[in-house]
Each structure stands twice: as structure tokens, then as C-alpha cells.
Amino acid sequence: MHKSSSIRRSVGDRAVGIIRTLFLIIMGVIVVVPFLWMLLTSLMPDSKSLLVRPFRLPWPPAFQNYAEVFRSQPFGTYFFNSIVTSISATVLSVMTVVLAGYAFVFLEFPFKRFLFLLVLGVLMMPSTVAIVSLYVTMSNFHWLDTYWALIIPFAADAYGVYLIRQNFTSIPRDFVESAKIDGAGHLRILFQILFHLAKPSIIAYTIMAFKWRWNDYFWVLMMTSSREMRTLPVGLVMMRNEDGGTQWQLIMAATAVVLLPMILFYLFMQRGFNDQYMVGGVKG
User: Fold this and answer.
1) How far apart are CA 210 and CA 23, in angstroms?
2) Cα–Cα distance, 168 to 197 (Å, whole number)
3) How do the residues of the chain divide into helix, strand and coil, expressed in percent and rounded to 5?
4) Distance between CA atoms of 241 and 26, rounded to whole angstroms?
5) Going by C-beta distance under 8 Å and a sequence separation of 6 or more, which residues neighbour residue 199?
6) Which residues, other chains included, contact 220 with Cβ-Cβ below 8 Å and sequence gap of 6+?
7) Residue 107, SS3?
8) Rounded to 5°, angle at Cα 282 from 281 and 283
9) CA–CA distances in Å: residue 247 to residues 40, 254, 259
10) What is the pLDDT of residues 151-203, one digit of tens each?
11) Residue 74 phi, psi (nearest 5)
12) What CATH class is the domain 65-283?
């Protein structure tokens, strides 16, 4: 009886494993196929061949489509603007949320609980509610169509403050108290101890913050009025509108240009996702 139940359990586990594997394969295909089609389309020689046989392998591949993208639109300028605004806003945001998270957890100051409730209130408020007031503020500062309007409003983020604050609360206070006894100041405690212990969460937020700024379309569209200040997402949409949406091989090539830096950034940053920091700290 015991042997038969073990066999049934083994068969059941194997069936569950097969179903799980099939599900993962199907989901992987669903995710990968659109990107694969985008890359194949970007290498098509022209839109006519794309309409005749949309799923054939482009041979020879038309790599000149990528060069044509930069000739037809100032994508070099768009790329530079995206890099400057995304990196600047991400660095400022990460520094701000780390400092705020430390203050909310390890410092005592008046109205601390009330201020954190304000952060939660901002987090729960839809971002579209503040669009008009933010636009008026940028206009009063004469920041419209400048880098300032694309960077400064995102130098602080309520979600990031909440995320890092919650992560800091999970770190034993013994680390901080021991550092204080050894004479360490707040900045040394934050950047030499807590920053490493919370590194996976900080890296995760850095990736999210960079992605939000890199893919931002609506805010950039509102704040800019010249080609010289457009970023890649806005430039991509403008390219499609100006060309009538007919040159799909160029639009897909431009889309690949927009996506590639985000993928490379993730691959570069994801090496920090491990849980060895806390383990090493506890062992020490």
C-alpha cells in the first residue's frame, strides 16, 4: 500500500513538472516571438516585401535600415537626451530615496510619522492629478523645453522612499549601533554598511527608476516642443506620424534602438541580485 502511494505521488509530481515546463515554454514563446518578429522586420529590405511575406527570414539582412533611422530623424540627439535625462534623474532619485529611507528608520526628528504618512499619501495619489500643477510650476521656473523639466521633478520618488525604508527596517539595528560605537558617522554608516546590506533592493529600484525615465513619453511630450529636446520614445512616435506609418522596417529598427540600452542596462545591473550581503554581514 505504501509502495503504491509512493508511485502515485511520483507520477503526480512528474505530471506537475511536465505541466509546469510546458507552461513556461508557452509563456516564453509568447514573450520572445514579438521581439523576434521586431528584429526580423527591422532587417527587411523594404515595406513591400514585409507586406508580401511578413514572417520570412530577411536575406540578405538589410542592416542599412538602422543607418537610415539615424539619417531620417535626429536619433543621435534623441539618444543623447534619453541618456542624459534617464541617468541624471535615476542617480538623483536613488540618492534621495536612500537618504530619506535612512532618515525615516534610524533618525529621530519632529513629525517623523506624519511626514511618512505624507509620503504614503503621495504614493497613493494618481500621478495625473498633479500634471497641471507641475506644468505650471515648470513654466514659472522657465524650465519648459529644458533638461531641468525632464530631470528635477523625478529627483525624489515616493515609491522609492517607501521601498528602501521598508528594506532598512528589516536590517538589524545591531549593525548601526556597533558602527556608532566605533565612531562612524551617519554617512559612513549609510554608504559603507547599510548600502551594501540593502544592495539588491537598491539595484532593483535603480532598474525600475531608469526604466520609468527611459520609457517616459507623456511627460516628455508635455515638457518639450523642439526636436532638440525630444527623447527616444517621443522621437519614435513622431517618426511614425511623420512617415505615415508605412516604413515598418524603419520603425522596427528604431524600436530596437530604443529597447537595446534598457536591456543592456538590466543585464549590467542584475549581477547585484544575490542574497550574500546579509549572510556575510551576519556571519561577520
Assistant:
1) 31
2) 9
3) 80, 0, 20
4) 34
5) 272, 277
6) 150, 230, 231, 233, 234
7) coil
8) 90
9) 14, 11, 19
10) 999 998 999 999 999 998 888 888 787 878 877 788 888 888 888 888 888 99
11) -75, 60
12) mainly alpha
CA-to-CA distance for 169 and 167, rounded, in angstroms? 5
Distant-in-sequence, close-in-space partners of 227: CB < 8 Å, separation ≥ 6: 74, 77, 235
In the chain, the amino acid numbered 279 is: V
* 282 has a pLDDT exceeding 70: no
Cell of 68: 537610415
- Distant-in-sequence contacts of 164-167, Cβ < 8 A, 24+ apart: 164/97, 164/98, 164/100, 164/101, 164/198, 164/201, 164/202, 164/205, 165/100, 165/101, 165/104, 165/105, 165/116, 167/101, 167/198, 167/201
Domain ranges of the chain: 2-63, 65-283
The one-letter code for the residue type at 112 is K
Burial environment of residue 78 by CB neighbours within 10 A (0 to 12, 13 to 18, 19 or more): buried
Q: Which helix (H) or strand (E) holds 248?
A: helix 248-269
- For residue 61, pLDDT over 70 is answered with yes
pTM score above 0.85: no
Torsion of CA 68, 71, 74, 80, to 10 degrees: 70
